[in-house]
Amino acid sequence: MSETAALPAFAGRTYLFQVDNGAVFRNAYSADGKRLHWEGLGESAGQWEDVELQVAEVAPQIYFVSWTEQTGITVSHVMDLGALTVRAFWTFEGEGGRVGELHTGTLEPVI
């Protein structure tokens, strides 16, 4: 018997993601929850990308979401849609090799 996975609660939704380091992103998720169009705002204005997501619901309304960007940056989020918070970890090439950063942030639904 095959099971159909439920759509993630963020599917088809758009959020402003405000990160503790001052960065702000507009994250628009596809209707099937498998893709993300992110767009930098403020100091990151003009940066954007469409990425394929890996998604797992780890508890009710809590999702582990991960993707790799064309630049090689990897991003992983634990999104708590009940509390509208995110724990984010991203890695990128820096001086001396790969660098990782852990951040927190908030989500604001865009109507």
UniProtKB/TrEMBL annotation:
Highest taxon listed in the record's lineage: Bacteria
Positions of the MoaF-like domain: 11-94
A Pfam family assignment: MoaF_like
InterPro entries for this protein: Calycin, MoaF-like
UniProt-recorded name of the protein: MoaF-like domain-containing protein
Species this protein is from: Kitasatospora acidiphila
